[in-house]
Amino acid sequence: MKAPKLFYKPLLFMVVLFGVIGVVTSVTFSNRLRREMTREYESKALALAQSVAESDIVSILGHDAGTVQARIDQYKHIAAVSYVLVTDEDGEIIAHTFIPDVPLEIRTLVAETAGTLPGDENLMRDVWIDKEFFLHVARPILVGLAGYVHIGMDTAIIARNIHEAVAEQQLMTLVLFGASLLLSFLFILNISKPLTQLSEYAGRVAVNDFSNVPDIKSNDEIGQLAAAMRSMASQIFEHVKNLEDRVRQKTLELQEARDALKQKVEARTGELMRANTQLKIEIAERKVIGEALRKTERKYRAIFENAVEGIYQTSPSGRFLSANPALARILGFKGSEELMSSIYDIATQVYMEPTRRNDVQQLLEKSEEVKNFVSKVRKRDGRIIWISENVRKIANPDGTALCYEGSVEDITLRKKAEDQLKRQAFHDPLTGLPNRALFLDHLRLAMERSRRRKYMFAVLYMDLDRFKVVNDSLGHETGDELLRGVARVLEKCGRSVDTIARFGGDEFAILLEEISAPKDAITIARRILEGVREPFTIGVNEVFTSASLGIVLKTDGYDRPEALLRDADTAMYRAKELGKSRFKVFNQKMHDQALKLMELETDLRRAVDLREFEVVYQPIVCLETRQVCGFEALVRWRHPEHGIIGPDDFISLAEDTGLIYAIDNLVLVDACAQVKRWQTVCGTSMVDRLTLNINISGKHFGQNMLLGQVTRALDDSGLPPGSLNIEITESALMDNPAVAEDMLKQLKELGTNICIDDFGTGYSSLSYLQRFPIDVVKVDRSFVSGVDDDPDSQAIVRTVFSLGESMGLKIVAEGVETPAQLAFLESEGCRYVQGFLFYKPLSVSAVDALLAGISDNA
Amino acid sequence: MEHVVINRKSLLFWAVIAMISFLMLQARSVKAEETKELAVGMSAAFTGANGELGIEFYRGFMAYIENLNAKGGVDGWTIKVLPANDGYNPGPCFHNTIQFIERDNVFALFSYVGTPTTTRILPLLQKFEDRNIFLLFPFTGAQPLRSQPFGKYVYNLRASYFDETGGLVDRLVEAGRTRIAVFYQSDAYGRTGWDGVRRALEKYELDVVGEATYRRGAPFEQDFSNEVRHLMRSEPEAIIVVGTYASQSAFIRDARNAGFESPVAGLSFADSDKMLEILTREGRRAGRNYTNNLINTQTVPCYEDTSLSAVRLYRELMDAYKGLPVSSGEAYTPRRFSYVSFEGFLNGVLLGEVVKRMADAPSRDRIPEAFASIRDFDLGIGVPVEFGPGQHQGLRKVYYTTVINGHFQAIPDWERWRK
To answer: Are residues B285 and B404 in the same domain?
Structure first.
């Protein structure tokens, strides 16, 4: 059974109460017991002592220790008696019960007692022996005359008794406590039981359970409480019943309403579910699409972000709508955000020229797109760079610009490279001066200007005299240094508006712009000449040089700048001809000559096209037989207006214009075919002796095509290669000995022979005769014509013959015109001659006739 | 109330013995009228620490009395001894005595053993003075039995403890050993012995140099080394022990173990034969000799002295006697001869003589008369028994013995202990 809570307080109270009672009674009881027992023991001890003292007087008086001992032995067995001791009147111990011996304390006490204890009194004292407490009583025997009795009571027994008594007492208290506890418990249970019932009932009422009304019938307060509760409960019951009815009714109504609502909700829920499903599908689709979009967006974003080109979108007002990191980088910003937040007017903040943006916008009005729109822009740190833009307009349907999209490329480096290239293209790397192209450009501009308004300018053409000597003697580096020095002189002499150019080699040209009068140009020319004449210190050397200048003052009337320049060149040559270190102004006469030359050139071209050339053959006579043994082919130009023109008048022009190749080839092909024919005509007798000498220009000799032309001509004509002698001049050999040697070797391989024309006029070195595979040497006509009266010429001719003999060369003397000359030549051992003395150059028909005659003769 | 230390077995004994005694007495009292039998009561220790003493004593006189009865008694009167065990405790002895007197109506109390027990019953003798109850030849030398107010009810054969102790002291002092200590039993016996020593020394104006007591009933196993040390502090030249064979042998063992080699003297009550047996056994066990310098007084001559007629008779009868006072519950082997049984034998002889002297009509009231007639009576021990009118002490001779050839024999020369 669970103890009612009401019981706890009484329990506590009783515990305390009984505790206090127990302690207090124990203390008081034990004290009283101690007192009583002590008193009892005292009296007991006294009685015993008395008994010993009075019953055994005889034995004691007789000091009969054994009897006394027997007597006191009996007392020892009396409860609480610890020891008994009997002495005589002097304190001598007659008998005692101590084992093994009388303790010192007792001995002392006994000795004291013997003398001091008055006859009818008792000594009572507490004694400690070996930590034990004794009540010691001494009693005189016969007023102390017979002796004394000492008895010790063991107080440990008293203590034990007290202990037992207290334990008993406390046990009693405990039993009482238990009994009281039980009683009070039952009593309180009696009270608490109806209260518990009532409280349980109240609890039930709280949950509307009005049944099982507790039946408590008593007249006390609990009974009243129960009655009150009953009536209260019945009232509450009424109320509750009433309320419940109403609630039930309302609940019913609500139920109906709820059911209706539930149906609606269910229907609506169904719809919503379907819609929800639909939405879910849509969401899923959108998710997929969104994911795809995001992917694409990411892809393009990545491209956008990582593009090397700057990509942007700008508003028409001049703000960046978006920009990629590359653009920010190009413009010197840390990131796109910084760029977009910093720039609010692109036109003024980005472009160097604020109108550039306007330009673009205007361009975009015309076309959708502008490409490679190059502008200078300012970077954030102020540096200026070049950019190239591709811009596109995003427009509304009505055409107004929504925004502009574009990409930007930093082309500063490219621009620089272009400038560099441009500069390299238009400047001479050695001197830093403009080159021919730029000069011509400037010249063209000047010419245009002069055509538009009255504008005077002049052109100077300059060539250093003796530059080749400097170059050869002091080396190319010195030559280059000299050229640079000259360039500086020219720059010093010219004005800022003037264009001073180097055309290559030692040729310079100066364009003097905006001169007021021709004398200005003359002044400058003089200054130049003087400046150039000054010595140049190059390394340790002082180099002297001079220049020749050609000046064109009358610059109007030219269509092409090349022509103007050519005239200046012409004037310069003229100056050189006149003795160098001077200038010559181009005049009308020079102009006319030039004009004439130009006409000739034109005619020559046409002549090549129209094959206006014909070949004549000067026979070469073998002196032994006085018979023709070969021909030298010579070219003649049959000009439609000027008649026959000799090679001296057009070969140099042909060389200059490059027409010489065609002309040479023409002669080669014709001559080979012709000589072959003649060889055939002449039959076997002459076949091997009839040779052909062909003159090849020095310029042509350096060309590889020559070999092919010779081969083809030989193949086409069928002429034996051994019949063909290629005539070249000494200078042609020596201009480029390496190339010449190679060429000679190949020609020799073809089987042709090599003939040196005009021997003795060129370089005096004869070593080349040994070096090159030369077959024939032609003694120049100037020596031949001099043999009549000039001993020097005689000596030269003699030497040449002896040389040719010793070296196994075939020597041909040309230009033999007199019999005296012939005689000398013959005397000197000449075997082959050529000259008017025998034959002039003959046409084909004349040769045919000649050969016919020979044949006939033969 | 008495605190009697009796184990359960002895209680059982008691009951059996009481029953048997009762039945026998019933039978005898009826028979007495016809067969002329005289019953004497004997209360003694047959068990416990002093048990063998009682048994030996009993065997001694029963050897003679059996023989006497077998030969037809004293003029037709046979003597019946009723033994009762008191375990050497005064309480049981007191009860035994009352039963002997009131129930058994004994002829006399005979051969009680022990001082504390016999001193306790002395008042009873006075109480039953009108019935003439006398205590004959108790085995004790205590003084209360020999002095007023109870000495008149007791007839002692053996010399008193005072005699024994006095003689011992005389001889020790004579040997130069004046520093004498006493180890004694804490009761009337021990205190009497002590008193005897004290009184003897007083004559020489000496005092007991040291004393220690022990509780009665101490077995041989008890450790007395504390007591030995206590006594040794007084540097004694000799120690007189007033105790039983168990306590005395235990004390000797501990004293010798503690290095005390001077003489240790004991009294006749200590049953020197038993003591010697114990010490010899202990000596063998411990590998040493505990029997040197031991002195023991005896109140009878040596049983080896066959020149004496009593000794010869004693030896003859003892060899023939096989009885025991009680059935043997404890490990006990009867000794062939001993001082104790010899003294008992002499008691029997004297009892026979007393009966003989009033054989015509033996009655309790004639006992003093019979004793008064015994003067210069030859008991066969070389010295006469001297009673006479008012004389209650038969012998005063004390024999001094020491261990010779494994027996306590008369000391030939005291000089060996001279100091």
So the answer is: yes
Pair B196, B86 in one domain: no
Kindly report, residue by residue over A163-222, the tens digit of the pLDDT. 888 888 888 888 988 898 889 888 888 888 888 888 888 888 777 777 777 777 777 888
pLDDT in tens, A30-49: 888 888 888 888 888 888 88
pLDDT value at A773 more than 70:
yes
Provide the CATH number for the domain formed by A307-416 in this structure. 3.30.450.20
The type of residue at B121 is I
B143: nearest CA partner in chain A = A66
Q: Among B119, B120, B227, whose Cβ lies nearest the Cβ of A100?
A: B227
The C-alpha of B74 sits at a distance from chain A's nearest C-alpha, in angstroms, of 37
Same CATH topology for A427-586 and A602-857?
A: no
CA A399 to chain centre: 43
Q: Using an 8 Å CB-CB cutoff, list chain A residues near B143.
A: 64-67
In chain A, the residue whose alpha carbon lies closest to the alpha carbon of B207 is A92
Distance from the A55 Cα atom to the nearest Cα atom in chain B, whole angstroms: 12
- B256–chain A nearest CA distance, Å: 19
**Residue in A58, A69, A82, A104 to test binding to B, most B beta-carbons within 10 Å:** A69
In terms of pTM, does the model score above 0.80?
A: no
Q: Which CATH number fits domain A602-857: 3.40.630.30, 3.40.50.150, 3.90.1170.40, 3.20.20.450?
A: 3.20.20.450
Indicate which of B122, B140, B182, B195 best probes the interface with A, i.e. most A CBs within 10 Å of its own CB: B195
Is there a contact between A384 and A376 (Cβ–Cβ < 8 Å)? Answer: yes
Nearest CA in chain A to B215: A99
Q: Tens digits of per-residue pLDDT, A280-306?
A: 888 888 888 888 888 888 888 888 888
Examine residue B3 and state whether it is found in any structural domain, yes or no: no
Residues of A with a Cβ under 8 Å from any B Cβ are 58-59, 62-70, 73-74, 77-79, 95, 97-101
Distances in Å between the Cα of A489 and the Cα atoms of A311, A460, A480, A512 are: 52, 14, 14, 15
Contact A73/B195, CB-based, under 8 Å?
Answer: no
Calculate how close chain A gets to B381, using CA atoms only, in Å: 29
A145 vs A498: CA distance, rounded Å: 179
Residues contacting residue B414 through CB under 8 Å, at least 6 positions apart: B171, B174, B175
CA distance A660 to A666: 10
Give me the number of domains chain B comprises: 2
Q: Who among B191, B214, B226 is closest to A69 (CB)?
A: B191
A79 chain-B contacts, CB cut-off 8 A: 1
**Rounded (5°) CA angle A632-A638-A642:** 130
Strands (DSSP E) contained in A193-352 are 310-314, 320-323
ipTM: 0.77
Distance in angstroms (rounded) separating the CA atoms of residues B191 and B197: 10
Give the domain CATH number at B77: 3.40.50.2300
How near does any CA of chain B get to the CA of A97, in Å?
6
Phi, psi of B205 (to 5 degrees): 55, 40
B213: nearest CB among A62, A78, A100: A100
Lowest mean pLDDT among A41-45, A248-252, B163-167, B212-216: A41-45
Q: How confident is the model at residue A337 (pLDDT cuts 50, 70, 90)?
A: confident
- Note the CATH architecture for domain A5-171: 2-Layer Sandwich (3.30)
Among the partner residues A59, A73, A98, nearest to B187 by beta-carbon distance: A73
The predicted pLDDT at position B17 comes to 61
* pLDDT above 60: residue B1: no
Neighbours of A295 (CB within 10 A): 10
Nearest alpha carbon to residue B195 among A63, A650, A407: A63
